[in-house]
Amino acid sequence: MAKTLAGFTVSRSGEDYVITIEEEGGETQEYTATYDQLDLIADTVGETLDSDEEDMLAVDDEGEAKD
After folding, report:
1. How would residue 11 be classed by pLDDT, with cut points 50, 70 and 90?
2. Phi/psi at 10 (nearest 5 deg)?
3. Domain segments of the chain as ranges
């Protein structure tokens, strides 16, 4: 079962980055990533949002935003 994201931070640590992910219950996990890995994450998130953008911003037949 997927856990619910409460928040996250990305910080630099030497030549790498530390991604800290906080779950809804307060538990945190830390991951080390290279620049290339972080760039791939950013690209993937952007592509996913771009592909869903039309549906998320869609309006119904009465001109109101869909929920």
Report:
1. very high
2. -130, 125
3. 5-56
